[in-house]
Specification:
Blueprint (H helix, E strand, L loop, with lengths): L1 H47 L8 H6 L11 H12 L1 H10 L4 H10 L9 H5 L20 H6 L4 E2 L2 E2 L4 H18 L4 H10 L1 H11 L11 H18 L17 E5 L6 H8 L3 H7 L15 E5 L3 H8 L2
Antiparallel strand pairs: 1-2, 3-4
């Protein structure tokens, strides 16, 4: 009898041990099986972060448009007709956006601004950083020197930071952020104020008691300015509707900003790195006479595929 009892104890211990081992193995197997799934998920997320690369910048932007383009209004319809009447010019302007538009859109996105704001250079400068108005405004964003100085952009003899693509873009978008807050998120008013000044817009609001851009007595240029931006956005949003073929610009960085601590001669950089002088000039229009003034030597913009060559040249 004692032998049977002892055998029963051993059998019970064996069953318990087997049960514990089975449970442990099952839990370990579950963890092991989860690891590939987690890895796959992370890999998918990493790939999805690059899904936009190669897609047209216009498609990405248009999906983030926030404003009502009011395409049924006579003002916007008139501006759409003007743009469609000279599609070659419109195509030329949009092609000129190539070096800048990705950077500008990413900056508007980072600030939570309507994506339509990235199209302001279409109507301000036609994406020509050398553009200069008869009123004294210059650069992609057509900043006046006083406004530029207030926004921290350097303008002095021999150097005009309003032509610096990075500095002027950040300054203009900071100004738009302020205007958006000033007009409580009414972007029609904010865009109008960028053109004619917030004091003039505010004065028109006080005189009429209305905060609707469409009914305010504003300068003639401003009355066309906002509808023109909306017209550009409407065409980019739905090019097929208007029979327009947008130039393909991949949604990826075109340039990289490299820090410099001494004057840079663009012609020497172009020759040693294999970059065309035209490309370097478009990216660095603030460089006067091909050389950056010593006191303002902060950075140089170069195409992303030439970064290593330029670093070797500048030894940065």
């Amino acid at each position: 009898m004692q032998l049977i009892i002892n055998l029963s104890k051993y059998l019970l211990l064996a069953v318990l041990s087997f049960s514990l081992l089975t449970t442990w193995y099952a839990s370990e197997t579950e963890v092991i099986n989860l690891m590939p799934a987690s890895y796959t998920s992370l890999l998918y997320d990493s790939e999805s972060a690059n899904d936009d690369a190669g897609e047209s910048v216009w498609n990405i932007m248009s999906r983030q448009f926030k404003l009502d383009t009011r395409t049924q209004s006579s003002q916007v319809q008139a501006e759409i007709r003007k743009l469609l009447a000279d599609q070659d010019r419109l195509n030329h302007i949009l092609k000129a956006a190539l070096p800048y538009i990705y950077f500008i859109h990413k900056q508007t996105e980072a600030r939570g601004l309507p994506a339509e704001i990235a199209l302001i250079p279409v109507i301000e400068s036609e994406f020509n950083p050398y553009d200069h108005s008869n009123k004294g405004a210059t650069g992609l964003w057509q900043l006046m020197s006083r406004t530029a100085n207030e926004l921290g952009v350097k303008v002095r003899s021999g150097y005009d930071g309003r032509r610096n693509v990075v500095a002027s873009t950040k300054a203009a978008l900071a100004y738009f952020s302020d205007l958006g807050r000033y007009f409580n998120g009414n972007w029609y008013l904010a865009i109008a104020a960028y053109n004619c000044g917030q004091i003039r817009v505010k004065s028109a609001i006080k005189r009429t008691g209305s905060n609707s851009f469409w009914s305010l007595p504003l300068p003639k240029e401003t009355k066309y300015y906002v509808p023109r931006l909306l017209a550009v956005a409407a065409i980019i949003k739905n090019p097929e509707k208007y029979g327009v073929e947008l130039p393909h610009i991949s949604y990826e960085p075109y340039f990289e900003e490299l820090p410099v601590n001494k004057p840079v001669n663009l012609e020497k950089v172009a020759k040693s790195s294999g970059i065309s002088m035209d490309t370097l000039s478009k990216l660095n229009p603030d460089y006067t006479r091909g050389s950056h003034p010593k006191q303002d030597a902060k950075s140089i913009l170069v195409p992303v595929d030439k970064v290593h060559a330029v670093k070797a040249t500048l030894k940065v």
